[in-house]
Amino acid sequence: MLPKQFRLKNKAAFSATYRIKNSFHKGGITLFAGKKKKEETPTRVGFVVSKKTHKRAVKRNRLRRLMRESYRLLLKSNEVGNANQYMSLIFVGGEKALLKPMREVQAIVRELLGRL
Q1: Mind listing the pLDDT tens digit for each residue in 44-75?
Q2: In what order do the strands lie in the sheet with 44-49?
Q3: pTM score > 0.90 for this model?
Q4: Cα(36)–Cα(50) distance, integer angstroms
Q5: Which terminus of the chain is less hemmed in, N or C, by CB atoms within 10 Å?
């Protein structure tokens, strides 16, 4: 689980991040990046898997957990690259990513963060 200071929870913050339209896609996962930071605050991250992706909550939650854990491990090893320059990030899981194992999801998340 990500520490509380890194979580994106507010609906307005999600809307503001989507409104920027700065996105990257790979392997069924899309990364939306918000505005660049001016102060030294932690980057907040949100993880979304819509009900349209799969009707079963168990499948959606599994993908959300995999994405969250991948980001947490990258954050712990300090491999997030330019992600620290943004105020908020949102990872959106798609249908293609549902059946992928942890290693593939981690590789996709790493590559998306590298594109920032």
Answers
A1: 999 999 999 999 999 999 999 999 999 999 99
A2: 22-26, 29-33, 88-93, 44-49
A3: yes
A4: 26
A5: N
